Amino acid sequence: GWRGADLALARAAARMGLPYTLSSSATAAIETIAEQAPGRLWFQAYVLRNRDFFWQLVDRAREAGYEALVITVDLPVGGKRERDFRNHFSIPFRFTSRNVLDFASRPRWALDMLLRGLPAMENLRGLETAATSAGAIASSVGRSYDPAFDWARLAEVRERWPRKLIVKGVSRADDATRLAAMGVDAIVVSNHGGRQLDGAVPSLQALPEVLQGVAGRCPVLVDGGIRRGADIAKALALGAHGVLLGRATLFGAVAAGDAGAQRALDILHDELLRTMRLCGAPGVAQLSADLLRPAP
After folding, report:
1. Rounded Cα distance, 166 and 183, in Å
2. Cα 110 from chain centroid?
3. How far apart are CA 218 and CA 149, in angstroms?
4. How many domains does the structure of the chain reveal?
5. Among 8, 54, 55, 91, which is disulfide-ready with 48 (CB 3.0 to 4.6 Å)?
6. How buried is 242 (Cβ within 10 angstroms: 0-12 exposed, 13-18 middle, 19+ buried)?
7. Taking CA 162 as the corner, what is the angle to CA 22 and CA 183, rounded to the nearest 5 degrees?
């Protein structure tokens, strides 16, 4: 959407004192983010069939000084993302009359992509030796996830990663209990933005059950649908220790690069403070469930 968007997001997060999570499939390398946007860095590692390549990514994050490793466990295979079909988005990319018109309406963006090419998934270079172009690398990613990843392999990750370990994609109390007993440092309640399994439980509905399963042994974060500061307040009021932001900040970066990423965080920060003040909550500790009412 914007060349260098990952770096813009990381810099904005560092200025705000917030952790930034770099995805395995980002368009910026692990080392580039560490060098050009130093701050509280987390690395989100998708679990790959190629175990040697997976451990290379983990080792690179450790050597670059990332403070936490985020293991995503709710993406063993790609979901049926019908919206992508409707929007004529496919990997490898194919031109259609609809997306060509979309490109024509954004000539400066289209010219940049035409002259400089699509940004590549830098951290996945070499994953598929037959993949050379950015489009080919992207098309190989879905095939590369490991549906056989299990508790034993997660325990191996816990043993080999010496810093904070966060497990993302949890929606059940029994899984949360087992993860807390394993010694993970945080859990993220997530249904992958609702675009993996159609009908999966919404994150906010799953949050109380996961909190009960953890029983205070580690922090519980939540993501999915956090678009406004009031959404952050609701998650905190329900007991979450924090939220993860994806689309809201990405929209800012896609609109205006570095300035847009910062503007998105500023908007969310302002909205959160306004919501707290209008609820009579002088601090996040005063955001409690009694401020909420169930929807009809």
Report:
1. 10
2. 26
3. 23
4. 1
5. 54
6. middle
7. 95
| Residue 46, domain member (yes or no) | yes
What residues act catalytically?
A: 192
Rounded to two decimals, what is the model's pTM? 0.91
Whether 288 is covered by a domain: the verdict is: no
Greatest CA span in the chain, whole angstroms? 59
Quote the pLDDT of residue 80: 76
Residue 156 lies in a domain: yes
**Distance from C-alpha of 154 to C-alpha of 160, rounded to nearest angstrom:** 10
3-state SS of the chain: helix, strand, coil percent to 5? 50, 10, 35
| CA nearest to 185, candidates 20, 42, 39, 6 | 42
Q: Residue 88 is encoded by which pair of tokens?
A: 């004529």
Q: Which residues pair with 189 in a beta bridge?
A: 170, 222
- Give exposure, 137-174, as e/b (b: 16+ Cβ within 10 Å): bbbbbeebbbeebeeeebeebbeebeebbbbbbbbebe
Give the domain extent around 57.
Answer: 5-81+142-227
**Which residue stretches of the chain have pLDDT < 70?**
90-92, 128-143
Ranges of beta strands (E only) in the chain are 20-23, 41-46, 68-72, 164-170, 186-189, 220-223, 242-244
**Adjacent-strand bridge partners of 23:** 44
Helix pair 203-214, 229-237: axis angle to 10 deg: 30
Residue 167 sits in a domain of what CATH number? 3.20.20.70
Q: Measured on CA atoms in the order 12, 56, 60, 63, is the torsion positive or negative?
A: positive
Evaluate whether residue 157 is within a structural domain.
yes
**Which amino acid does the sequence have at 51?**
R
Task: Count, in order, helices (H) and strands (E) of the chain.
Answer: 12, 7
